[in-house]
Structures are given as structure tokens and as C-alpha cells.
């Protein structure tokens, strides 16, 4: 995702100077630099996005719906789009940030693909899902209040066809304090290697720590199974960032 709208600065410098503390928000300033921010902040992001296309191609079913929940600028939406080869599949991206969706519309329009994409500005907690074969929560669930996560995943599982999947990517925390410290240190070194200063790392962490609430891998596995998925596979991990594949068994249709 390299094309920019007029006025985009491109490079993330949002936390380069000392500023009063405020919680992180997906506003217009973040939307302008988001591709650069997430590439330099999330280890493995540039691997996960193309693999979403591969997974979508394997699990999408004719006559079904596909959803990208918390679609932001549409990177995973477009990956799903290119993995869908049925004309009767609908693809919907949902996000509660109008600023992000405005730019998402731009990227969707630039993308060379004929499958229509519907974008909805709404809270995914209140969204309705049905007849789904592939759903993506790509670094989205971590911003949902913990007490609302089980209900959301249960509704997704109930709406998923037998043989369908949920792709869940998340930042996680570790039960071992020693491992947590090591993984956090490596993540910060990843950011430094991508040009972020100690001040940027510190201020971004302070801004996001009350809105991004990570959980352990085991908590995610248990919640997905309790929601109604039959198999949960860890298909990717880089430091404290993971992506899971939750599969709805075809046995449920027999």
C-alpha cells in the first residue's frame, strides 16, 4: 500500500517531539501515516497481509460473505479481495473511524480488481454478520474491551459456515515475566531498527497502553474454542505478534 492521497506526509513522526499525554486514537493524523506506522511497528505485518490472500483463497466459499473487521486503510480487505475468485461473494470492510475509511475508499478505488467492496462505518460490536466463509480481525480485537470479546467472537462463529474460518492477528502478552521482558525488548529493538527514537517508542507506548489490551495466546485459544470454532492454529508468530486461524469444522453440517 504505497499510493498516497494528496497531503499525505507518509512518514510517521507523530511522537517525534515531546507532547502532553493522551490516549491513542485512529484519527486523521494517524490515518495519514498509518501504512508507515504499522509497517515499522508491527513485526511480520508485511508477511501477514499477503498470507491473508492465500488463506482467503483456500477457504472462501461461493455464495458467502467475507468480512474485514477493523479494516482501517484496507490492507487486509484488499488481500482478501485478491483471494476471492467467485463472482457471487460479497466483501465488507467495517471500521468505526471515518478518517480511516475515507482513505480506505481511496485505496479500494486504486486497486485493480473487479469484486465490489462495501465499506461500513460502525462499531463491530454492533455489526451484524451472516453466511460468512472468511472473516478477518487483523490487530483489531486488542482494541475491543475485554468483556466484549467473547460475545463478538461467538457471533462471528455463529455466522460462519461449516468449513469457514476466522483469521485473528493480535499483539500478545506472556505468562512468564522473563519472556515478556525479552519479547518486549526485541520488539523495541525492531522499532529502533526501523528508525524510531527512544522518545517515539516511549510516547507511543504511553499513548496506546490504555487502549490496546493484549492477552495471552492461551486466552485467545480458549475464547475461540468457546465461541464455537473447532480448531485453532497458530500459523504465524514474530516476537509478541501472532496470527491465528480458527476453523469451523464441516462436521457441524452433518
TrEMBL record:
<dbReference type="InterPro" id="IPR029063">
    <property type="entry name" value="SAM-dependent_MTases_sf"/>
</dbReference>
<comment type="similarity">
    <text>Belongs to the class I-like SAM-binding methyltransferase superfamily. Cx-SAM synthase family.</text>
</comment>
<feature type="binding site">
    <location>
        <begin position="70"/>
        <end position="72"/>
    </location>
    <ligand>
        <name>S-adenosyl-L-methionine</name>
    </ligand>
</feature>
<feature type="binding site">
    <location>
        <position position="205"/>
    </location>
    <ligand>
        <name>S-adenosyl-L-methionine</name>
    </ligand>
</feature>
<keyword id="KW-0489">Methyltransferase</keyword>
<feature type="binding site">
    <location>
        <position position="45"/>
    </location>
    <ligand>
        <name>S-adenosyl-L-methionine</name>
    </ligand>
</feature>
<dbReference type="GO" id="GO:0016743">
    <property type="term" value="F:carboxyl- or carbamoyltransferase activity"/>
</dbReference>
<keyword id="KW-0808">Transferase</keyword>
<dbReference type="GO" id="GO:0032259">
    <property type="term" value="P:methylation"/>
</dbReference>
<comment type="function">
    <text>Catalyzes the conversion of S-adenosyl-L-methionine (SAM) to carboxy-S-adenosyl-L-methionine (Cx-SAM).</text>
</comment>
<protein>
    <recommendedName>
        <fullName>Carboxy-S-adenosyl-L-methionine synthase</fullName>
        <ecNumber>2.1.3.-</ecNumber>
    </recommendedName>
</protein>
<dbReference type="GO" id="GO:1904047">
    <property type="term" value="F:S-adenosyl-L-methionine binding"/>
</dbReference>
<keyword id="KW-0949">S-adenosyl-L-methionine</keyword>
<dbReference type="GO" id="GO:0002098">
    <property type="term" value="P:tRNA wobble uridine modification"/>
</dbReference>
<comment type="subunit">
    <text>Homodimer.</text>
</comment>
<feature type="binding site">
    <location>
        <begin position="95"/>
        <end position="96"/>
    </location>
    <ligand>
        <name>S-adenosyl-L-methionine</name>
    </ligand>
</feature>
<feature type="domain" description="Methyltransferase">
    <location>
        <begin position="68"/>
        <end position="164"/>
    </location>
</feature>
<dbReference type="InterPro" id="IPR005271">
    <property type="entry name" value="CmoA"/>
</dbReference>
<dbReference type="InterPro" id="IPR041698">
    <property type="entry name" value="Methyltransf_25"/>
</dbReference>
<feature type="binding site">
    <location>
        <begin position="123"/>
        <end position="124"/>
    </location>
    <ligand>
        <name>S-adenosyl-L-methionine</name>
    </ligand>
</feature>
<dbReference type="Pfam" id="PF13649">
    <property type="entry name" value="Methyltransf_25"/>
</dbReference>
<dbReference type="GO" id="GO:0008168">
    <property type="term" value="F:methyltransferase activity"/>
</dbReference>
<feature type="binding site">
    <location>
        <position position="138"/>
    </location>
    <ligand>
        <name>S-adenosyl-L-methionine</name>
    </ligand>
</feature>
Amino acid at each position: 500500500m504505497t499510493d498516497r492521497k494528496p497531503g499525505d506526509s507518509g512518514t510517521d513522526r507523530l511522537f517525534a517531539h515531546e507532547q502532553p499525554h493522551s490516549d491513542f486514537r485512529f484519527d486523521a493524523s494517524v490515518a495519514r501515516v498509518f501504512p508507515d506506522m504499522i509497517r515499522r511497528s508491527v513485526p511480520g505485518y508485511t508477511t501477514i497481509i499477503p498470507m491473508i490472500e492465500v488463506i482467503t483463497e483456500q477457504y472462501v466459499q461461493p455464495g458467502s460473505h467475507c468480512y474485514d473487521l477493523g479494516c482501517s486503510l484496507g490492507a487486509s480487505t484488499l488481500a482478501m479481495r485478491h483471494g476471492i475468485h467467485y463472482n457471487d461473494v460479497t466483501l465488507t470492510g467495517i471500521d468505526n473511524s471515518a478518517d480511516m475509511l475515507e482513505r480506505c475508499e481511496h485505496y479500494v478505488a486504486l486497486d485493480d480488481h473487479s469484486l465490489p467492496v462495501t465499506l461500513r462505518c460502525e462499531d463491530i460490536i454492533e455489526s451484524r454478520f451472516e453466511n460468512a466463509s472468511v472473516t478477518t480481525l487483523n490487530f483489531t480485537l486488542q482494541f475491543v474491551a475485554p468483556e466484549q470479546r467473547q460475545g463478538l467472537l461467538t457471533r462471528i462463529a455463529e455466522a460462519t459456515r461449516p468449513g469457514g474460518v476466522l483469521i485473528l492477528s493480535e499483539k500478545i502478552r506472556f505468562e512468564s515475566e522473563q519472556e515478556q521482558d525479552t519479547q518486549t525488548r526485541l520488539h523495541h529493538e525492531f522499532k529502533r531498527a526501523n528508525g524510531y527514537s527512544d522518545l517515539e517508542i516511549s510516547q507511543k507506548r504511553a499513548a496506546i497502553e490504555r487502549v490496546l489490551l493484549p492477552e495471552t495466546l492461551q486466552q485467545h485459544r480458549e475464547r475461540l474454542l468457546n465461541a464455537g470454532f473447532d480448531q485453532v492454529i497458530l500459523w504465524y508468530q514474530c516476537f509478541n505478534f501472532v496470527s491465528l486461524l480458527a476453523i469451523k469444522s464441516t462436521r457441524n453440517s452433518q
